[in-house]
Design goal:
Blueprint lengths: L1 H12 L9 E17 L2 E2 L7 E12 L7 E8 L1 E8 L2 E9 L2 E12 L2 E12 L1 E7 L5 E4 L2 E12 L5 E12 L2 E14 L4 E15 L5 E15 L1
Antiparallel strand pairs: 1-2, 1-3, 1-15, 3-4, 4-7, 5-6, 6-9, 7-8, 8-11, 9-10, 11-12, 12-13, 13-14, 14-15
Length: 229
């Protein structure tokens, strides 16, 4: 909770920068997700998890209206299941569904060759985590709305069209402790509508203190198509 409160305070106290015109930024892509950690003390590797493809998209609206925050909407589909059999009998049936929507209000603190955004996100989970062993029913409902601090740091590189940056969502709220960061490299073709691509690495760590508990790290590279105008 302290980390979340610190980011809120930084957002409130930092002077704002405003866009000159209305801008829309969007991207969509695939994240190659490696599962690590444990469910109720059982390692995910013992449950048969390895790599999965997760789909995602983001869209942001920026405007020149003073004191009104910009808006960003993001969705990530994280959904995987595994079953383990022994002589045709199902021993373990498990599922990890951490799909979520992020609704973010943010301010541009700096907007030139270096871009800094700070804000607040509400992350809505709509899923569950389960690890049913033999006849047991070990299930955690993950369907809460979680406030998170949001930050984006991005800088243009000395190569036309290229930029690099990092994005962070962070919280320690009730039963949820989340660290979700992305390292990114982007290229845009300069036109009326800028089109390009982005590639990078995402690390989503979740510690959940509900029911029998979960401690998960989802990591891996991603790639997306980008549009800005």
């Amino acid at each position: 909770m302290k980390k979340f409160a610190t980011l809120v305070a930084l957002t409130a106290l930092t002077p704002f920068s405003f866009a000159d015109v209305l801008a829309i930024k969007a991207d969509a892509g695939l994240w190659r997700t490696d599962y690590d950690g444990e469910l109720g003390g059982i390692p995910t590797s013992d449950l048969g998890y390895s790599d999965e493809n997760s789909r995602f998209f983001h869209i942001a609206f920026e405007h020149p209206i003073p004191l009104v925050p910009n808006a960003r909407l993001a969705y990530t589909d994280i959904n995987a299941g595994r079953s383990i059999y022994w002589e045709d009998a199902q021993l373990i049936d498990s599922k990890i569904d951490l799909s979520h929507i992020d609704a973010t209000a943010y301010y541009e603190i700096l907007d030139n060759w270096v871009n800094i955004d700070l804000g607040i996100s509400l992350r809505k989970f709509d899923g569950k985590i389960s690890a049913n062993i033999l006849d047991s029913d070990n299930r955690i409902s993950v369907d809460d709305v979680i406030p998170m601090g949001y930050a984006l740091f991005e800088a243009e590189l000395p190569f036309t069209g290229w930029s690099a940056g990092a994005e962070l969502n962070l919280t320690d709220f009730d039963d949820y402790k989340i660290s979700d960061y992305t390292l990114k490299l982007k290229y845009l073709f300069d036109a009326v509508v800028d089109l390009g691509f982005e590639a990078g690495y995402r690390n989503f760590s979740l510690t959940l203190d509900k029911s029998y508990g979960a401690d998960l790290d989802l990591t891996g590279p991603y790639a997306s198509l980008v549009m800005e105008f």
